Amino acid sequence: MADRPIADLGGRTPLDVARTPNLDRMASRGILGMTPTIPEGMPPGSDVGTMSVMGYDPRRYHTGRSPIEAASMGVELAQEDVAFRCNLVTIEPDDSGEIMRDFTAGHIGTDEATELIDSLRSSLGGNGIEFFPGVSYRHLLVWRGGIEEMRTTAPHDITGQPIADYLPAGNGAERLRDLMERSKAVLGEHPVNVRRRGQGACEATQIWPWGQGRKQQLPTLKERFGIQGAVIAAVDLVNGLGILAGMDRIQVPGATGYLDTDYRAKAEYGLRALADHDFLFIHVEAPDEAGHMGDAGEKIKAIEAIDELIVGPLLEGLSQHGDWRLLVMPDHPTPCVLKTHSSEAVPFTVFSSADLSKIKGQLRRYTEADARDHGIFIPEAHTVMERFLKR
Question: Given its phi and psi angles, is residue 82 left (phi above 0), alpha (psi -120 to 50 degrees) or beta?
């Protein structure tokens, strides 16, 4: 949700403009502050940021994005194996060469994407290379006994840019580049792409591997805090972190990881999960997707939907659970002007059952400016969760 001031919004951020009475109530009567989820020198991604939000120091535990997604997908990794996120992307020719037209292949549907990954597995798999289908454009490539030292680039960081300078480079990169090149022939006249071409939709023209890493292990929340948690998310990255943290994964019909996700269902399933769990982690991808699109209007809509359809019902439903606390926090900013992630501190707010009795709060909203000017600052974001869970 976090962003930078946008000229078309009069120098305000989407959080400034969005109507968020529930989040503002939390900010005015509870705790409001700022914290940097991305430690200095680490890449500003959801793997690093969400690890911080969940209370794990990325500098200690982070080994790469893709091993986390492998955990969500049930893909077993040996210590010598390397996992890569494998995007289906749209690359198109341009005057300056080939460019990254769309890092989501037009937000390709999961069913169509699975067909493509199955074909890639049949044609390119073997000799230590395995493909595993995920959700929409997000998939997994595993190199058994592979190399991880090469430089790779997140495709969402280079939207609209020439790709030549961002292809894998370094030790082991030749194998990846060969797979990327060969994937063009497999996908070029695939029935899925022929169908999408006829519909005027973006085609998945090739694969783009990135975010590599080796098997990851985390101490569970039960081991650390003596609690049993549940996770609700539509993306493998967050579900994988939840599984590694020992949380139960709650499947929610209609959760898409996109702007059309069923916000209300996430709150409803979450409240049900609290009947037999101590802790609930709900993740919503929609504001991030809007940021990648550079669409401030869609981001505002997503924020308002989170406030109305998730935060509001949670505040109402939690009143049936005795003493409780609720934390709202982005994993990183995705500024619309950048169309990718950044490392600035994010606003967070904590509200509890004890705050319900407060008749009057402070004059502040859940915005970056109010959190910065009128809230507290916590220099290490991974410590927020430990404070939040103190009894």
Answer: beta
Amino acid letter, 159: T
8 Å CB contact between 229 and 279: yes
Contact 349, 32 (CB under 8 A): yes
Residue range 322-360, pLDDT digits in tens: 899 999 999 999 999 999 999 999 999 999 999 988 877
Order of all β-strands in the sheet with 229-232: 248-249, 229-232, 279-282
- pLDDT for 391: 66
Smallest Cα–Cα separation from 231: which of 246, 249, 257, 252? 249
Q: What SS3 state is found at 301?
A: helix
Could you tell me which residue, 8 or 319, shows the higher pLDDT?
8
What CATH architecture does domain 7-62+218-389 belong to? 3-Layer(aba) Sandwich (3.40)
Beta pairing class for 82-94 and 138-143: antiparallel
Res 95: pLDDT: 86
Continuous segment of H or E residues that includes residue 134:
strand 129-135
Helices (H), 162-262: 173-188, 191-199, 221-225, 236-244
Q: Where are the domains of the chain?
A: 7-62+218-389, 86-213
- The share of the chain scoring above pLDDT 90, in percent, equals 93
For residue 192 the two structure tokens come to 């899925």
pLDDT surpasses 70 at 112: yes
| Cα 136 from Cα 114, distance rounded (Å) | 8
Question: How many whole angstroms from its chain centre is CA 276?
Answer: 26
Distance in Å from the first CA to the final CA of the chain = 28
pLDDT exceeds 90 at position 375: yes
Which tokens hold the place of 133? 């289908």
Contacts of 75 (CB under 8 A, 6+ apart): 83, 132, 140, 142
User: From CA 294, how far away is CA 4, in angstroms rounded?
Assistant: 12
Q: Are 3 and 14 in contact (CB under 8 A)?
A: yes
